[in-house]
Design goal:
This protein is an alpha/beta fold. The protein is built from 8 helices and 11 strands. α2 packs parallel to α3.
Length: 227
Amino acid sequence: MRILIVEDDKKIASFIKKGLTEEQYAVDVCYDGEEGLYWAEQSDYDVIILDIMLPKKNGMKVCKELRENGINSPIIMLTAKDAIKDKIKGLDEGADDYLTKPFAFEELLARIKALLRRNQQYKTEILKVADLEFDTLNHKVRRAGKEIILSGKEYALLEYLMRNKGKSVKETMIIEHVWDRNFDSFSNVVNVYIHHLREKIDRGFSKKLIHTIRGVGYFIKDDEGSV
């Protein structure tokens, strides 16, 4: 899952990014409204965390323009203001949730997960494909009851594949949701991580779950038939 933080206070932005990165999210950070608007329109973010008091263009205007331009990514607005009228205005402009500073990171994380669950792809915290089970809450992966230890990016990649079970996902789609904007688009890192996952998920099992459609993309499925 990929998240955009638009927050001009670099300490707060760094604090949020650190916590989300530890939760295996890919995170991009912008420090003003114009840059935030640009990146939100360039990439497909799963959640946008948007401060209201921003230089160049405030969060209310950014939110309004995103909705007018057809960007439907869930938005959580952050602000030091706690007046009811400010919350109402933010929601009226298209925000999905509202969090007043200061806040506990655990509350922000809970709100992010709640917004993701509203999307049909993210309804459950336990993902299953055949005998493979992924507890996304505790980052536990098991196949046939045996725990499989993955790296942070391997967890993120597997979750994205399992959220899209049975669907072919292009490399560009994987990059947009699993890596941040510093990703080197000329590298073969996606293919490398797919190989690592196959070694850990499929090796030793007669039924292979992770598949490649050459020139199209990758998919995970209960059986070895075509998508």
